[in-house]
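Researcher: Good morning. I'm working through a list of sequences from a screen, and I'd like to move beyond sequence-only analysis. For each chain I'm collecting a predicted structure so we can compare shapes side by side. This is the next one on the list. No need for commentary yet; just the structure.
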Amino acid sequence: PNPVIRNHTQKMSETLIRDYVVKLSGYKTRYAGTPENEKAVEEIEKNLSELGYVTSQICYASRKCSVLAEK
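Model: Good morning. Structure tokens for this chain:
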């Protein structure tokens, strides 16, 4: 297998994925533009950066952003 893919899969575990999903779904709301959404966007961007992705935010309105990740 591709060594880059192997590296990423070795960092993953069922517990890690479950904890991450629980954390993201635990926000009161992820409705675009809310403070909770901003926290979720920051968390997602942080995690993708830790996995080696180059991230940026694409904002389509004030305080309404999505994360773009590139390898």
